[in-house]
Design a protein that fits this description.
The chain has 495 residues and is an alpha/beta fold. The protein contains 16 helices and 15 strands. It has three domains: 255 residues, Rossmann fold, CATH 3.40.50; 155 residues, Orthogonal Bundle (Isoleucyl-tRNA Synthetase, Domain 1); 57 residues, no CATH class. It binds adenosine monophosphate and zinc ion (ZN). Its main location: cytoplasm.
Length: 495
Amino acid sequence: MNLKIYNSLSGEKEIFKPIHENSVGMYVCGPTVYSNVHLGNVRTFMSFDFIYRSLVHLGYKVRYVRNITDAGHLTDDGDVDNDRFVKQSRLEKLEPMEIVQKYTVDFHKVLEVFNLLPPTIEPTATGHILEQIELTQKLIDKGFAYESNGSVYFDVLEYNKRGLNYGELSHRNIEELFANTRNLDGQNEKKNAPDFALWKAASPAHIMRWNSPWGEGFPGWHLECTAMSTKYLGEKFDIHGGGMDLKFPHHECEVAQGKACNGTEPVNYWMHANMLTMNGQRMSKSTGNYILPMELVSGSNDFFEKPFHPSVVRFNFMQAHYRSVLDISNEAMVASEKGFQRLMEAMKILKNFEFKEVDNSPVNHQSPTINLKSWKEKCYTALNDDFNSPILIAHLFEAVNFIFKLKDGKETISENDLAELKTLMNDFVFDVLGLQNIEENNNAKLDQTLQVLIDLRNQARKSKNFDLSDQIRDRLLAEGIELKDGREGTSYSIS
Ligand code: AMP
Ligand code: ZN
């Protein structure tokens, strides 16, 4: 079965042909770590987590690079005073690198809560300043860039004069770009308005600065991704992803930098994930129309009537195709929760269901409502059709209905089919969609929590604080949890 991917470059679904057989190089633009990620950011990263999981499941060996932007992403491309990190560090009275550390840790924690797999390489922009300086020099040497007042700009007009096509990814016309570029700081340093910064001279107040052949400065945001993707995936690689809003100018500039440096399209398949909206408007920090992921999970917000488990949120996101806009709402989350619970119940039934020889009662002689071979094919067709998670989920629910009938003795299944159904459902639900069984997770959490209490009780006993150690034992007993001290240590039983 051929995998088809919608390629933003051609505007069509194309059959996926990796550069190296069975291997995929995939780069996804990571977060700019100057504040907490909002739920919209999580949606994009989850879309690519699902794509990554699907590729692995389909048998590809994936090198998955997702960067951390920890320098150079200005709120306005030309405005040096709008360095996000410097601004936030002033606000929080922290060093810029403390800001970077704080929000990188937050980002990782949030993604773990939503069960996103880590990328195979997670490079940082500040760890690749040398590579960015080298690329800038290469672009100057090739005549695609020029220095001006200690900054270096990419010459868009020169690029187009050589028959290359700035605007090919975002399908924009160069004349419009010239007409529509706003007059920003640094504009008078540029030859033409659409030129973009590869390297920016640092003003005396700018704390994040590095030495370069053009004086002290810092790299441009677009160049960071070209430097890191080229270093780890090569001059040409298979998939580049990011949110829809990054297509222009960020990805357009990446295409131009790559083509100017190496003479070839840097990326074969450009994939763009669509936006999460709330109240019908794009979720965004700057407009205030956002919710933090942990606010949704803990319930501490005014928008949702109750807290929702991260797996329910994940299920809700997976019910929309990655290229569709998704509007988050209380009603949709409540509906997703019901669907998710039914799916998990079916998974539990399936796990514990043991094969029984078919008896001769007439009901058991009906042919099953599910033909495993064709059902499996439908699931893979959905996955291979540009990673269509909502259609895949619809097919999984056919199996869910079948599993409930199986439990009630209204369906039969052969021993081999039962084994295969178990494997396929586990693969799709847990490995590919990345959902987690809340009950099993809670059991693990309870165990960890009790171990903490046992440790604290042992510490109290050691320091002869018997009041406290007895209190821990008695209060747990009152909750039906008995601690038993033995030679191997303390164990517990729950009545
Ligand atoms: P940033 O940290 O601003 O570079 O954003 C990180 C990722 O989140 C990028 O891929 C953005 O395209 C994506 N993103 C930003 N807002 C939204 C949103 N409302 N819905 C989905 N993705 C978003
Ligand atoms: Zn990027």
